[in-house]
From TrEMBL:
GO terms for biological process: fatty acid beta-oxidation using acyl-CoA dehydrogenase. Residues 2-165 form the Electron transfer flavoprotein alpha/beta-subunit N-terminal domain. It comes from the Archaea. InterPro entries: DHS-like_NAD/FAD-binding_dom, ETF_a/b_N, ETF_a/FixB, ETF_asu_C, Rossmann-like_a/b/a_fold. Pfam families: ETF (PF01012), ETF_alpha (PF00766). Keywords: Flavoprotein, Transport. The keyword Flavoprotein applies. SUPFAM superfamilies: Adenine nucleotide alpha hydrolases-like, DHS-like NAD/FAD-binding domain. It comes from Thermocladium modestius. Belongs to the ETF alpha-subunit/FixB family. GO terms for molecular function: electron transfer activity; flavin adenine dinucleotide binding. The keyword Flavoprotein applies. This is Electron transfer flavoprotein subunit alpha. Gene3D superfamilies: HUPs (3.40.50.620), TPP-binding domain (3.40.50.1220).
Length: 299
């Protein structure tokens, strides 16, 4: 049997369980009846809804499910901040390998995963149970309706949440965008970002950015940050404007279907990953491109 840890918004990780084969025991953190129904739609053999409060403490969660884990061949977790933390803790308690960023299943005990900041991939073979951490949409689950038994448990944290301050968020998660116009240090000042925003509006795209724009200059919120420490994206088209292409950024956009790069430096690393490259001053090129697209698209 395969154990799946997910939240209502990351149940797509059940696609990996389907690829592995076998029944799935699905632990849904802070899940409700609707989440249980979705898990049943994807063929769950059994569902455990776990109320773990505003802060899901890995230690308390482990104690609540420890009796169920010894007979499981694989444990699947979503590659979210909480998912990675829980996976690492549970794998450590069980003394099993913890593979992060799994991209393919080659055999029940052999997997392909990213390495070197997503710039390469490696094959890993394990002997015995293993924890697998995967991006929620990497393996899309098929509908295989089942009628699983549903159980409820509590795993309330021993620490208390005294307050919460939300970060400002956009209307769409950058991970979900099909088209992204991303900005970097080639922009001289914050007001100049409107060039990229206007281009994105014409294309119907979201605006992303490299680390300095969000983390250092704070010209955009971290919701726009694409990179190893930011968000990993897989759009149909990724346009990098004024971005040099450091490894940390490449790790976040490497799986883009089509990459367009605009930079004044013909030797910028971003061009090594681009399908189309433009060596030009963004302040000259972007306004022209915007107007050409506006006319072509009738906007």
């Amino acid at each position: 049997m395969i154990g799946v840890f997910a939240t209502p918004s990351t149940l797509e990780v059940m696609g990996l369980a389907q690829k592995l084969g076998g029944d799935a025991l699905v632990f849904i953190l802070n899940g409700d009846d609707q989440a249980a129904e979705r898990a049943a739609k994807y063929g769950a053999g059994r569902v455990v809804l776990i109320d773990c409060g505003a802060i899901c403490d890995p230690a308390v969660l482990y104690d609540a499910v420890a009796g169920e884990l010894s007979g499981l061949s694989h444990l699947v977790f979503p590659a979210t901040k909480d998912g990675k933390t829980i996976a690492g803790y549970i794998a450590g308690k069980l003394g099993i390998p913890n593979l992060v960023d799994v991209v393919d299943v080659l055999a029940p005990n052999k997997f392909s995963k990213y390495s070197m900041g997503n710039r390469g991939a490696e094959e890993v073979e394990v002997d015995g149970p293993v924890a697998l951490v995967v991006q929620p949409k990497r393996f899309q689950p098929a509908e295989k309706p089942s009628k699983p038994a549903v159980e409820r448990r509590k795993a309330m944290p021993t620490i208390e949440l005294t307050g919460r301050e939300e970060k400002a968020k956009g209307s769409l998660k950058i991970e979900d965008a099909e088209l992204i116009v991303s900005v970097g240090r080639g922009f001289k000042k914050q007001d100049d970002l409107k060039l990229a925003m206007e281009l994105a509006e014409v294309l119907g795209a979201q605006v992303g950015c490299s680390r300095p724009i969000a983390a250092d200059l704070k010209w955009l919120s971290e919701d726009h940050w694409v990179g190893l420490s930011g968000h990993k994206v897989r759009p149909k088209m990724y346009m990098a404007i004024g971005i040099s292409g450091q490894p940390q950024h490449i790790a976040g956009m490497l799986e883009s279907r089509l990459v367009v790069a605009v930079n004044t430096d013909k030797n910028a690393p971003i061009f090594q990953y681009a399908d189309y490259g433009v060596v030009e001053d963004l302040y000259k090129f972007v306004p022209v491109l915007k107007e050409k697209l506006r006319k072509a698209l009738g906007k």
